Protein: Major royal jelly protein
Organism: Komagataeibacter saccharivorans
Amino acid sequence: MYANSSPIIRRLRHAGFLLACGTAMLGTVQAAHAAKPAPPLNPPAALEEVASSTTSAWDRVAVLPDGRLLVELPRWAGNTGPGLAVLDASGTPHPYPDDAWNDSATPAARRLVAPADIQMEADGTLWVLDSGQPDPTRPPVADGPKIVKIDAHTGQVAQTWAIDPSMLHDGSHPATMRVGRGHAFIGDSGVPAMIVIRLDTNRQRRLMQHTSSLTAGQPITVNGRVLTNATGHTAIVNISQMAISPDGQWLYFEPLCGPVYKLDTDLLIDPTVTPIELEEGPTLWYKTPALGGITLAPDGTLYFNDVSTNSIFRLMPDRVYQKIVTDSRLHWPGGSFATRDGQLYIPTGQIDLTAPFNGGHNAIQWPVHIYRINIGALPPPKF
């Protein structure tokens, strides 16, 4: 039956993977069973405010090796300052990695035109995805779309990779990225697809275009309101969030509206895998609502930032699912960061009130905040 399949697909199937008939999913026996829900954490996790802003809406955060907070400030949200900024002890933002990389006079190939995602690795390597699109509804700036590798210990740019223009279609928007196993995996939220770049050779491939797991299938709802784009129509955002396991083997992703899927990166890095096998590859990992971020903590727990109800959920390695907090202060919890000492940093940028998601009108109620949860001190679920 599988004689014409790639060696990787045959290996996965012989290892116990099952093809779900009539779906676009390939999952393990374990993943076929729903996660065991636990009652909400009681008392809920405590929020500690660690930073605020009255000028910039951030959507992602990371912690530098020296403990400072790094924030991403998306151009499309109306921000006019640096695309990446480090916060000093008083919370004042400073361009990162330096002024030149955030200066509009610097050639596009050597500046951050429009950062779209960041990934901080345990060794201090910072990966930045630059979409090159200050306005995702317009084509990218020439030489703008790229990957930037930064040594976060020194703040020096180590290398850049330009995204080949042929990888981007009319309407494309590189929105999220994770790096692992010598490859960069980039999600195109405009024309849903996965762009895979082998970093040592710079070989680039566009895969899984319009695959159902990458494609938005429902509206984005925040506190009962359906988000609308600048023209007043229902906002549609395809694949927009990612997380990757420390060994690079498993990629977790979702269109903004949810749900979350899991994919073995073997399928993405092997050029012999067929389009049909790639379409069958993703496993529906959990039927989440709209998420502003997916974070994989060092202990293997996934944290889902639910923008629809201002909540944070955790999916534990044993597949126990639990809400740890719901709080009105978590207004659009974005791309968070989990430290090795058990702290979860969560930016709340009110992204649903920015013009692209609010019918063209910016209605952010300043200030916006970054909160911290001591996840290392959270008790285990009780049933």
The radius of gyration is 20 Å. The helical segments are 7-14, 266-269, 275-280. Residues 15 and 28 are 9 Å apart (CA to CA). The chain has three helices and 29 strands.
